[in-house]
């Protein structure tokens, strides 16, 4: 059973927190150390993105610990009822403490620029994401960060 098939976000969070993590590959084109990992616990498994603090490139305008901002973004999204950030946890991994975010199955060729004109039914979700970005002080939104899953979310 994959994490995307788990019925409740709490089950996904528990898998991300407690499952055995194995690095599959380093993600190309990332300025920070970013790894595709597999996480498994019994019959449950998922792929996720692991961003350890150890591989972080310092930014002048943010304190060290960008991986904590990833976790905070998820928590803020949930607190606001927006559900626009995949489940994300803070945990220890192969390269130390980092964020672990559930990988969502999505077509990378479908992103904001291709979806805006073709899928007007998504416009309210785009607006909500804009509000989220302002409240969260997100300075890293790119069109490729706006993906749609298999449930049109």
Question: How would you describe this protein?
Answer:
- The chain has 153 residues and is an alpha+beta fold.
- Helix content is 29%, strand content 24%.
- The protein has four helices and five strands.
- It has helices at 9-18, 66-79, 112-118, 123-136, and strands at 20-26, 35-41, 44-52, 88-93, 96-102.
- The mean pLDDT is 88.
List the helices and strands and how they pair.
Elements: H1 9-18, E1 20-26, E2 35-41, E3 44-52, H2 66-79, E4 88-93, E5 96-102, H3 112-118, H4 123-136
Antiparallel strand pairs: 1-2, 2-3, 3-5, 4-5
Helix content: 25-40%
Radius of gyration, whole Å: 15 Å
Low-confidence parts: none
From the spread of the alpha carbons, the general shape counts as globular
Oligomer: single chain
Structural class: alpha+beta
Work out the number of β strands.
5
Query: Helical stretch count?
Result: 4
Q: Biggest sheet, open or closed, and with what strands and sense?
A: 5 strands, antiparallel
Arrangement of strands in the largest sheet: 1-2-3-5-4
Termini separation: 21 Å
- H and E string: HEEEHEEHH
- The averaged pLDDT comes out at 88
The fraction of residues in strands falls at 15-25%
Features:
single chain, globular, 153 residues, 5 strands, five-stranded antiparallel sheet, 4 helices, alpha+beta
């Amino acid at each position: 059973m994959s994490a995307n098939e788990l019925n409740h976000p709490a089950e996904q969070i528990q898998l991300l927190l407690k499952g055995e993590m194995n690095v599959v590959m380093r993600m190309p084109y990332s300025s920070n150390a970013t790894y595709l990992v597999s996480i498994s616990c019994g019959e449950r498994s998922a792929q996720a993105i692991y961003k350890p603090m150890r591989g972080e490139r310092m930014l002048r305008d943010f304190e060290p610990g960008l991986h904590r901002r990833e976790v905070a973004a998820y928590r803020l999204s949930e607190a606001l009822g927006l559900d626009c950030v995949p489940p994300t946890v803070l945990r220890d991994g192969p390269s130390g403490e980092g964020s672990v975010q559930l990988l969502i199955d999505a077509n990378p060729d479908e992103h904001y620029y291709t979806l805006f004109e073709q899928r007007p039914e998504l416009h309210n979700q785009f607006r909500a994401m804009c509000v989220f970005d302002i409240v969260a002080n997100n300075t890293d939104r790119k069109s490729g960060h706006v993906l749609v899953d298999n449930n049109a979310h």
